[in-house]
Specification:
The structure is a single chain. It is elongated, with a radius of gyration of 23 Å. It is built from two helices and no strands. The protein has helices at about 5-20, 25-55. The mean pLDDT is about 75. It has about 70 residues and is mostly helical.
Length: about 70
């Protein structure tokens, strides 16, 4: 829940940058840098959420028994 606020704030900043009407070559570099930063934030957030959900599941047994009993 705490990660949602930074993600929303970052998305609002990127939307504001993307709504610029006049862009030249220098501004495109800033937009590219912002896009890469947003992608990294989303990837880290996704990984953290995935690890937290994985930790909630009970650990599986490491013992595997394969037997072929014929009656």
């Amino acid at each position: 829940m705490m990660i949602i606020f930074p993600l929303c704030l970052n998305s609002l900043v990127l939307i504001t940058l993307l709504q610029e009407n006049t862009t030249n070559f220098d501004d495109l570099g800033k937009l590219l840098l912002g896009g890469v930063a947003a992608a990294i934030v989303v990837a880290v957030g996704f990984t953290v959420v995935r690890f937290k959900l994985r930790d909630k599941k009970p650990p599986t047994s490491s013992f595997i028994s394969i037997s072929s009993e014929k009656e």
